[in-house]
Amino acid sequence: MSWNEFPFIAIPACLLWLAAGLLACRRAQTRRTVWLVDALAIGGIVLFALFIGSFWNALSRPPLRTMGETRLWYALFLTLVGYVTYRRWHYPWLLLLSAVAATAFTAINILKPEIHSIALMPALQSFLFIPHVIIYIIAYALFGVATLAAAALLVQRRKNAVNQELFAFVDNLVYIGFGFLALGLLLGAFWAKEAWGHYWTWDPKETLAFITGAAYLAYIHLRLQGRQDSLVIWALPIAFALLLLSWFGTTLFPGSSLHLYS
Amino acid sequence: MTRKLWQFPWGYPESALFVAGIALAGFLLQLTVGYFDFALLHYPGNLIALAILAGLVALAVRFQYTAAVRWIAGIPFAVTLTVGLLLLALYMELTPQLPRPPSQSPDLASRLGFRAVTSSWPFVLLYGMTLIALGITTFRRLIRFSRQDISFICNHLGLFVFLVSSGFGAADMFRVVMHVETRNTEWRVFNKNSEALELPIAITLNRFTMEEYPPSLTILDRQKTPQDPPENKKPSEGEFFQIDPKRPEGQLGDWGITLDEYLHTAVRINGEYRVNPMPESTPAAKITARNRLTGETKTGWVCSGGNIPEYFSALPLDERHILVMSQPEPKRFASDITIIPQGGAPISTVLEVNKPVAVGDWMIYQYGYEKTLGKMSPWSEMELVYDPWLLPAQIGMGLMAFGALLLAWNGAGKRRSFR
Predict the structure, then answer these.
(1) Kind and range of the H or E element at B271?
(2) Closest-CA distance of chain A to residue B315, Å
């Protein structure tokens, strides 16, 4: 399958995710609706994953090179993380929000289809390519969910009713996300040494990766003292804005980057 | 009870003022002596700096219960330092940076070190302060090791070891590009002034090889580029049709494209394309294009020509438009080489991107080739990197990777307060 067939898979998948999110947020939950939410969410995730798999096969290379291709994985992991956290911590609104966000990312790919291209430059032909990008995208998805939850915390903070359980859950997501972020960065550094002879060169994407990492590190350390003022909560949306900049914004800044391929 | 400024225990206001003070000292140093000279950290300078760092950390760990050490190893100072470095990095991201500090600094931004932030005094001082604070924090915890601290130790000690080896090792790192012609042996590298430097390693290039991807097709408008022959113009906009034998049909503008025949290594003999794996061979495709509005059908061979202009062929679609093929992109390129280390046995190997070869403290990388000639390139370039601090840097990265795995596994669950 290719970008030509993408809408025929993506639109049903998004509808399944949104239906699961809406159904989960309904007040009256019966055993049947709970079962139906599971079926809809998993159905959407499996459908989307099948597309990525067959797209990979058609390209004869992993679909991780272009922006549109990374958005595919983001939509997949965002809904996956949203679903797992909904099941594990019972936040139905998180399932809905992650479905909306994943739909937005999918819509960009439908409205701005990319050109079919099977070329993968030699520098990217490394066993580290797939784990480097996928681990980063998982970190982005975890931080995305943490940011949605932080927005809820900011609303609660205004009403002076911060849910401590939710705050602990946000911290947990940030810790796990930071673990993935650090792993993605280290794999990238290790790979850069194999490919270019230096593990760190302050390439614009690397500088932004440092900035993003430093911002989440600041949040983690701020929270170690148990602070929960709105300044600390605001660190999360700010860090996520920097993250989005490092993901999409590398072309906006001066300096040539090794991380631009298409 | 309210605490006055500079009254212990210090918190965020003192930390912010202290970090701002370091940055200010850095800017003053920058204005007076210019960019930081990394030659100062050449061996043995880096070992002396390391000894000073170790002494400071040891001293602080000895007096670890004083309010000053608690502050320097504490969270407010760590957060403030992180934010300080973050702001410098943000500035670095938003403005053009020079790869090396400029020898002359005409404008204020340059005199303040903003043209090459990583070589500027404020950055170097904040980096050094980070090493001191991180070192104290780490070793304070390390001497009272508890199993719960494994994640903490891996993350902090790993970062410390990594920052020490990459910071202090930067000056000892040496990288050069060696240019070798096919069937020649080279042991020298040349600088901009064509001065030769002899290396302890010689390299013989036996053969340079390249594999290519099938190219793309695109439609060019002849009226837009009247003076440029289309074979010299790289199509930069418009749509492309990727030649992919798995998907022989597609669409380009108003034209339906069918790939009738594809020869990956074609040569042109008497106007006919034939398969022949000669070095100058290039992809050629027989295409049928059908206009979906008029139903008009055109069939013919399309070829970019590769390195041989006589191989070029385009398919005229109408009076204005022609169908052309792009130059193929490299899939894999490699140098079949023999490495002769000084006083060692020769090593025969194939060097390619992502597969460097280690010889002692040197790493040898496939670097470049003559791009205009592609697979017919008569030479290959190899980058030789000497990095004696690589092993400790990799140990630091390994520790951090283990720490990151623990973070991802444990989440925020297990934390131990430490005073």
Answers:
(1) none
(2) 22
Are B318 and B329 within 8 A, CB to CB?
Answer: no
Check whether domain A122-262 has CATH 1.20.1260, yes or no: no
Say what angle helices A230-248 and A204-224 make with each other, to 10 degrees: 160
Domain count within chain B: 3
User: Which range marks the domain in which residue B185 is found?
Assistant: 174-210+331-386
Q: Which of residues 114-133 of A touch B (CB under 8 A)?
A: 115-123, 125-126
Q: Which of A176, A207, A221 sits opposite B78 (nearest CB)?
A: A221
φ/ψ of residue A81, rounded to 5: -65, -40
| Residues A162/A228, Cβ–Cβ less than 8 Å | yes
Q: How far is CA A6 from the centre of its chain?
A: 20
State pTM to two decimals.
0.86
Closest partner residue to A200 (CB to CB) among B166, B216, B242 is B166
Q: Domain check: are B105 and B52 in the same one?
A: yes
CA distances (Å), origin B9, targets A228, B15, B76: 21, 11, 11
Consecutive 10-residue averages of pLDDT for chain B (419 residues): 83 96 96 90 91 96 94 96 96 88 81 90 96 96 90 96 92 91 94 86 94 91 62 52 87 90 92 87 93 92 90 91 90 93 92 90 92 90 92 95 91 60
* Optimal mutation site among B354, B367, B383, B417, interface A, most CBs of chain A within 10 A: B354
> Residue B115 to residues B23, B49, B85, B99, B102: CA-CA distances in angstroms?
16, 26, 16, 9, 8
ipTM: 0.87
